[in-house]
Amino acid sequence: MHKIGIFFGTDSGTTRLIAKKIARQLKGRIGDEAVGKPLNVNRASADDLLDCSALILGTPTYGEGVLPGKASRNAEESWLEFLPKLAGRDFSGMRVALFGLGDQEQYPDHFLSAMMDLHLCFSEAGAEMVGGSSTAGFEFNSSRAVVGDRFIGLALDQHLQHLLTEQRIADWLDEVVPLLLSDRPVGQEAPA
Ligand SMILES: Cc1cc2nc3c(=O)[nH]c(=O)nc-3n(C[C@H](O)[C@H](O)[C@H](O)COP(=O)(O)O)c2cc1C
Hints:
The chain is 28% helix and 17% strand. By secondary structure, it is α/β, with parallel strands linked by helices. Strands 1, 2, 3, 4, 5 and 9 form a six-stranded parallel β-sheet that branches. A three-stranded antiparallel β-sheet has the order 6-8-7, with no helix packed on it. Helix 1 crosses helix 5. The chain is globular and about 40 Å long. It binds flavin mononucleotide (FMN).
């Protein structure tokens, strides 16, 4: 059976809140048993991630466009401390979708950039990265999380646009759920 794991890093708790929102919407679509309880990566092991059939991973951006963690002056350990634990682990064949939180008004030069660090780490470990989203509706100068004209994951801004979040999650899940559930190679999924 498919089990989608949801893991996040956070400093001030907003990404945890969003992970719970995503879990709630996802359960409404594919059932409670198919969705893991959202877990902070500072309490997770590499095996917790590898035990899932697909992953949704969330991160805020801190510093000037970097992942959360003690080196980003956050209070607790987070992705910066967790990612080294994945060294040598193989995520081949696993589908991974990302969501990112940032603040386009205060940090327009590094908006959501840390999502790219997760993208690089998991794609280097063999994962098939899915679930980009449009940059339409955002105003920022630059972001490492944009490839072409799309974000590499779900983009959210709880500071300026929190009222748009539920719908953004719903629209993203419309696209990403069939990809996360499919056993076929990327690009050859059955039509919805
Ligand atoms: C010191 C600091 C640095 C930040 N740097 C960035 C940044 O470079 N890019 C960005 O998009 N958001 C940045 N943010 C905004 C956070 O990513 C945003 O507040 C996010 O919602 C926090 O999530 P959390 O509550 O899960 O920690 C920064 C916030 C703080 C306090």
